[in-house]
Design goal:
Blueprint (H helix, E strand, L loop, with lengths): L5 H5 L3 H9 L14 H13 L9 E4 L7 H8 L4 E4 L1
Parallel strand pairs: 1-2
């Protein structure tokens, strides 16, 4: 297992999250706590889209934040993915 980068180590501390969500305001929203949909697309492509076609109607459990845009982003792709958001 590789050593976490300083950025990843910060995720384990409440101060990081306090600072991150303190930045939210009427003109700025925090949607993704980990990575954006575009950042995750190479992973989705390699491990989902290339492995399972839309005809399989894959199910994805999304454990993102309440204002995450990932379910909407998947929906816009119209690939028949069933996404369960919790």
């Amino acid at each position: 297992m590789s050593t976490p980068t300083p950025e990843l180590k910060r995720l384990a501390h409440s101060e990081y999250w306090d600072e991150r969500y303190a930045e939210v305001g009427p003109d700025k929203q925090v949607h993704e706590w980990f990575r954006s949909f575009n950042d995750l697309m190479p992973f989705f492509d390699r491990h989902l889209f290339q492995v399972r076609g839309p005809e399989t109607a894959p199910k994805i459990l999304h454990l993102g934040s309440g204002d995450s845009t990932i379910p909407e982003d998947f929906s816009k792709m119209a690939l028949g993915i069933r996404l369960m958001k919790f």
